[in-house]
Design a protein that fits this description.
Length: 281
């Protein structure tokens, strides 16, 4: 196995497999300083800074880099992956990745889109966690529906289950639309809220030390790095714009009903969603 990118998700893949006694050879591909830390932790058994060499000998390649880098690596992975290899990714958007993969994967190597629905607001190997995938859904976006019966895909699904994940299948367009509302929108709302307070704190006397647990919880995602979210916004722009437009409409509605019974209905609808989310865990 070659894990390309040993940040939060790639590093967690390595740690999770090591914890569960995975018998295959785990090769980490990243900058020298990063792979040294991964080696010391046992997340990988071998290290490489040479993408092509690592991919050429791997049965399974996990591209665990930002989305823009995944798009750049796909042609090289398609060309360099060995006979019968499976290449997958962990990108938070899927449509552009799957479209690019359809263009370049023509030989014996196979591509399977993937996205673990988990994460943290901090990135980097230092935040990797062997339990990151435990109890979380792991979306698979095959190039064709028939790919799900391929033995390589079935084996990868079992591997996901072995680290605690729950594989589910989606088409890329549906995935990206859902993520725009359920992941990308919350990130931008929290970033916008934190940015607003940062800008207005001194001018309007909003002392940050007055912030209690509610505000801190509501801005947790504001710690997320722009380097990750830049690519997500660039590859899911239309869906995110629609989500933002709808939430602006919702906020305008709430603003106009601050003194009416309609505000209570907003709370009731929100409570119902929270109940459904709790039941689905």
């Amino acid at each position: 196995m070659a894990i390309v990118g040993l940040g939060l998700v790639g590093g967690s893949w390595g740690l999770a497999l090591a914890k569960r006694g995975f018998r295959g050879r785990r090769v980490g591909v990243d900058r020298a300083a990063v792979v040294e830390r991964a080696l010391a932790s046992g997340a990988v058994e071998e290290a490489s800074t040479d993408f092509s060499a690592a991919v050429a000998t791997a049965d399974l390649v996990i591209l665990a880099t930002p989305v823009g880098t995944i798009l750049d690596l796909l042609p090289m992975a398609a060309k360099g992956a060995g006979l019968g290899a499976l290449v997958t990714d962990v990108g938070s958007t899927k449509q552009m990745i799957v479209e690019r993969a359809r263009e370049v994967f023509k030989a014996d190597a196979m591509f399977l889109g993937g996205h673990p629905l988990t994460g943290k607001e901090r990135s980097g190997f230092e935040h990797a966690d062997a339990a990151l995938f435990q109890g979380t859904r792991y979306v698979l976006t095959p190039l064709t529906p028939d790919d799900m019966t391929d033995p390589r895909v079935e084996a990868f699904s079992r591997l996901v289950e072995s680290v605690g994940g729950r594989p589910i299948t989606s088409d890329p367009a549906s995935h990206d639309r859902a993520m725009a509302f359920l992941s990308h929108l919350p990130q931008l709302l929290e970033t916008g809220l934190a940015s607003l307070i940062a800008e207005r704190a001194g001018r309007d006397f909003i002392p940050p030390e007055f912030a209690a647990a509610g505000f801190r919880d509501a801005t947790r995602l504001a710690d997320s790095p722009f380097s990750i979210w830049r690519d997500i916004c660039l590859t899911n722009t239309e869906n995110i714009q629609q989500a933002l437009e709808l939430v602006i409409q919702k906020l305008d509605s709430i603003k106009s009903h601050l003194k009416s019974q309609e505000l209570e209905r907003e709370f009731e609808a929100a409570h119902e969603l929270r109940r459904l989310l709790a039941e689905s865990e």
